Amino acid sequence: MTAEATTPSGVDEVHILWISEGMSCDGDSVSITAAGQPGIEDVALGAIPGLPKVNLHNKVLSPTLGGEEFLRPFRDAVNDRLDAPFVLVIEGSIPNEKINGDGYWTSFGNDEATGEPLTLNWWIDRLAPKAWGVVAIGTCATYGGIHAMAGNPTGCMGLADYLGWDFRSAGGLPVVNVPGCPVQPENFMETLTWLLYQAAGLAPTIPLDDQLRPQWLFGKTVHEGCDRAGYYEQGDFAHDYNSPKCQVKIGCWGPVVNCNVPKRGWMAGIGGCPNVGGICIGCTMPGFPDKFMPFMDAPPGGGLSSAIEGVYGPFIRKLRGITNKTMNKEPKWRHNRDALTTGYEPRWKN
Amino acid sequence: MAVRERVTPEAGKLVDMSWDPITRIVGNLGIYTKIDFDNREVVTCKSTSSLFRGYSVFMKGKDPRDAHFITSRICGICGDNHAVCSCYAQQMAYGVKPPPLGEWIVNLGEAAEYIFDHIIFQDNLVFVDFCEEMVRATNPSVWQKAEKAEAPHAELHGYRTIGDIMRSYNPFTGETYKEALHMSRIGREMICLMEGRHVHPSTVYPGGVGTVATPTLFTDYLSRLLRCLDFIKKAVAMNDDVFDFFYEAMPGYEEVGRRRILLGCWGAFNNPDHVDYDYRNMNHWGNEMFVTPGVVVDGELVTHDLVDINLGIRILLGSSYYEDWANEETFVAQDPLGNPVDKRHPWNQTTIPRPQKRDLEGGNYSWVMSPRWYDKRTGDYLALDTGGGALARLWATALANKVDTPFVKATGQSVQISLPKTPNTPEQVIEWRIPQWSNAIERDRARIYFVAYSAGMALYFLDRAFTELRNGVTKVFEDFDVPDEAIGCGFHEAVRGVLSHHLVIRDRKIANYHPYPPTPWNGSPTDSYGTPGPYEDAVMGQPIFEEAGPDDFRGIDIMRAVRSFDPCLPCGVHMYLGKGKTLKTVHSPMFGQHG
């Protein structure tokens, strides 16, 4: 067992079949072009040691010209003719195509025989069970997202809702969810890299939580990584969006949202949400958006917790204020008098 | 306007060629053509979209303050344009005017969006169609000329021949391609500084922004902008060299993607010295925008009044999968000035989806409706296009002759952009002049000039923002109340063209909401009056210059035409039929009125 574990036993070549034809804005495809750690080009061009050779089939980045040339690996995968295992990446929520008569909500290419549009669902039904791994990118694909909000006409849902939460891919994996609206660029690239190491036999099974998210990315809350959390602790709250203080009273859901963006920034460490003045609207969460609306009001419970903070926070703040004042004074040994008062004990005497 | 001579092709000679999906950022776009290879001409073209999500349906009943958070998600590349446009509409409805610094921050974010998006689209997607690998494959004789042709602006960009420039555009390996990808990341960092995130901003609110305005914020932005400016100065010169070479190397190439001059621009960059978001003053503050709104027909500026522009919008059906709303409720009978509002205006639209089979032969074939602009002089429903955004913006601004800042000036026939000395390049004055045609090459050329325009405006906005800050004014947000009943409209430019949001509030909830982004204007199907949408119109009747015959045809000229409109960032044109398939029976195609 141990010997086996140290010997790479995985595959040396993988296809990534990426379909963005769900109910989406394609913002996740765009997002990953902003990633630098690693860059999508690093993965695709083989610049990361140990990863299998990756054949990326994503419309944004594909250098191919022709539709059939682009669609070929997708058709080959349906027909069991693909020459290596594949990871299926789905972007956008999955419509209910059972409620639309003769029509379709979204399609990806046409049927070769009839010329009729092929739905996204047609492709998922055929590809998901054959995929080594299935990844849902962005909150639409993971949990339905914006397009699945109350009152929507398409009946759309997340990929795990569609395939079943007990779904297992050919590689024995559940759907891997990387939420975010859109996905934080590096959150996705890191997850993909883990999966590729795993496919190569160099990593154990990716650790997921009960919402099928990578644990190390979504295990903490926004609040725990927020630059403004210190203000919360001191009961010091913003009352409008001009303020750089804690935004819980003006609509921030950070204390109860699983997301690492305040800590990580949006790209290259820049931007984010509450840390730079944006309320957290819970866009990585399964309950997004309905359970977080209206966004610009204080979350229920936020009133109580901030009231409690309001009592003991100011006390803490006062003590901190005293300390802060002290800390803003230079140590008294700094002066230009004739004596050395730093406490230094010279080994020699004049 | 030139009307192309059309020859009715003989039955059996038309070849069916389709590209589906042409990927748009918001979904799927397919182009279905019939081509006459004997006469080397595209005879018919249908533009279809196969994605429906239903924003105007599920927005109903929601808190209006949620509108920009939701509508940002319409688009994964210019979501910030939607968020900003929605806030403009909300500000009108709430009667709130953001503090000047809030407006400068929004303008800085939007300028960065134009810089980022136009660069990644132009150099990483459009120029793949003009790169060495593509030109060598589709027009070998043109490539031979390019290798020998000396680049007129070699001293500005450093490439000796046109072939050298084209080589630098090769995907993944070319120098310019790689540099542009890097620039697109810097541009997005600039957006993240001002608006928190790209693509769905976190710090943009009705009433202003939540961005913490400090000297660091603006210095971080400025230092990135300077690096972009070095790139932009070179890029304008390279673009001019390549496009001028195409006209020279393939006489008649101006016909590719050419259509009648029918351009719409809704204006961008509000001026806080003038804007108050009151509909009744919209003509005044619309004309103070730093990109002037306007409708240009056959070279004439028909209007630059946002009230006229607003009232002229019509949403037509004809080939789309929706039921008519003629018998539904009229939400807004009169605008706040007392002008009647049409039943087919977005304020009065009710979206009723009706999924059905696609019928490309005379039936319904698209999820996109057909926005048109009613020209009250002639009674025509004009299929305005946006020229991919940049062309219409420059054209309307040049003719209106209103913009006058230290870095960007309109002249009546042109727009002058003065860029200062930056780390690696001397100062440079760039002038975009109104071109002879509205065609593929001029749409593409305008794009890089508008990047320079945005960079120039960003320098101005920075100057104004720094001045506020140095005067100790840091307020960026103004509080407001949501009224029980109100209407609002926002006019803005998404990167690829006109963007409007129309909002009706009742009982403090959204009663109606209709966003109109540029792609429905450009990619619409044939409407109820039989007028084809702009992609259809531009491609129909265009000559074919590609040297290959039907068996190896790749459709490069059609791709260049469609791409020039900037259908959206991940615009890979993918051919559905790898090889041409001769139709068994062909009916005489119906021709549109023009183009």
What does this structure look like?
The complex is a heterodimer of chains A (350) and B (595). Chain A has 350 residues and is of the alpha/beta class. Chain A is built from twelve helices and seven strands. Chain A has helices at 2-6, 27-32, 40-44, 67-78, 120-127, 138-143, 159-163, 185-199, 215-218, 229-233, 261-264, 302-327; strands at 13-19, 53-57, 86-91, 107-110, 117-119, 133-137, 176-178. In chain A, the strands form two sheets. In chain A, strands 2-1-3-6-7 form a five-stranded parallel sheet, with helices on both faces. A two-stranded antiparallel sheet of chain A has the order 4-5. In chain A, strand 4 (107-110) and strand 5 (117-119) form a beta hairpin. Chain A is globular and about 95 Å long. The model of chain A is unreliable at 1-8 (pLDDT under 50). Chain B has 595 residues and is α+β, with helices and mostly antiparallel strands. In chain B, the strands form six sheets. In chain B, strands 1, 2, 3, 18 and 19 form a five-stranded antiparallel sheet that branches. The N and C termini of chain B lie close together (9 Å). Mean pLDDT of chain B is 91; it is low at 1-7, 23-27 and 569-595. Classes of the chains: A alpha/beta (350), B alpha+beta (595). The interface between A and B is large, with 76 and 84 residues.
